[in-house]
Design a protein that fits this description.
Low-confidence stretches of chain B: none
Oligomer: heterodimer
Strand order of the largest sheet of chain A: 1-4-5-6-7
Helix content of chain B: 10-25%
Helix content of chain A: under 10%
Largest sheet of chain B: 6 strands, parallel
Largest sheet of chain A: 5 strands, antiparallel
Shape of chain B: globular
Low-confidence stretches of chain A: none
Mean pLDDT of chain B: 92
Largest interface: A-B, 22 and 23 residues
Radius of gyration of chain A: 14 Å
Strand content of chain B: 25-35%
Number of helices of chain A: 1
């Protein structure tokens, strides 16, 4: 089956992590390759959504939405690096 | 909601979304459909209008698809559906002043249209776009009359005046890049198309950090 890429999971990943993850850099726990999650290979027609390393095809993340819950398995990601959201100044 | 028939297999849907606050060019929305038996399918569709315009998605019907045939052939103006977005922070137009090169395979042109409509007037935009034949080329009229966009249009299974016959290859990309170095490059299309374009760009020494890709299968 043909894969798409991590851009297709922008919505689901935002739901899981509370911020955009497509531009975040993930480190594959299998081979150590570092890549934006947008570049990961994504398989949508599995039970759930499967995200694999673009270098070694190792399983990085599995997401399953069911009965109003999002189940997330992230054992294939060794580390995640993301740009901090800009703070805006405020005064009371 | 209203709609525009773009080609015989593609349709644009203009969405009526309460409290929509605009999007960044390149972003998309998730659309979720629920069947009568409760089965749900969610797919992501790029916004094809500029950020200040009414949000619009452009959908090409995929044979055997779970969502796209419904959106192209079945849904009627006024029918409600679930939507989430805008989402995505990677495949979005940067705010640099680098010249912009947009590379589209088929309906991958949708998020790129949002980019060319949003690009500042002083930012040079070039588009190379391929489709099977002219009838399947979404936004062809706009691209041809395009305001200040340098275009190169490829037909992979047809020929005609104003078109280049054959797939986009390395020479075609070199021609559209022209003197522009280093540009910001956005590539969107089927997975195999994007992979081959990325290889050509690498061989042409385009800095990889300026290349953003989106693959839709």
């Amino acid at each position: 089956m043909n894969h798409v890429d991590g851009n297709a999971l922008a919505g689901a990943l935002t739901l899981a992590f509370g911020t955009d993850m497509t531009a975040a850099i993930g480190e594959c726990a299998h081979c150590g390759h570092r890549h934006p999650f947008a570049e990961a290979h994504v398989y949508l027609r599995c039970p759930g959504m499967v995200l694999r390393c673009p270098a070694c095809s190792g399983l990085e993340i599995v997401m399953i939405e069911s009965e109003g819950r999002l189940h997330l398995s992230v054992g294939g990601v060794a580390s995640i690096s993301l740009r901090k959201a800009k703070r805006t100044s405020a005064s009371a | 909601m209203s709609d525009v028939e773009e080609t015989e297999s593609a349709r644009s849907l203009l969405l009526d979304i309460p409290d929509w606050s605009g999007h960044r060019p390149g972003q998309h929305v998730d659309i979720r459909l629920t069947a009568a038996d409760g089965y749900q399918a969610t797919r992501s569709y790029s916004l094809s209008n500029g950020p200040e315009e009414i949000p619009q998605i452009t959908v090409e019907s995929v044979e055997g698809g779970e969502v796209s045939p419904f959106l192209v052939d079945t849904i009627r103006v006024g029918d409600p559906f679930e939507i989430r977005g805008p989402v995505g922070g990677y495949f979005v137009l940067d705010e640099s002043d680098r010249p912009l090169t947009l590379i589209a395979g088929g309906s991958g042109v949708a998020p790129l249209r949002s980019m060319w409509r949003a690009a500042p007037a002083d930012r040079e935009v070039r588009l190379i776009y391929s489709a099977r034949n002219a009838d399947r080329m979404v936004f062809l009229d706009e691209v041809r009359s395009g305001p200040d966009i340098i275009t190169r249009l490829h037909l992979t299974r047809d020929t005609g005046p104003g078109f280049v016959g054959g797939r986009i290859d390395q020479n075609a990309i070199a021609a559209i890049l022209g003197h522009l170095q280093p540009p910001s490059v956005y590539v969107c299309g089927p997975t195999a198309f994007v992979e081959s374009v990325v290889t050509f760009l690498r061989e042409l020494d385009v800095p990889q950090e300026n290349v953003r890709t989106e693959r839709f299968g």
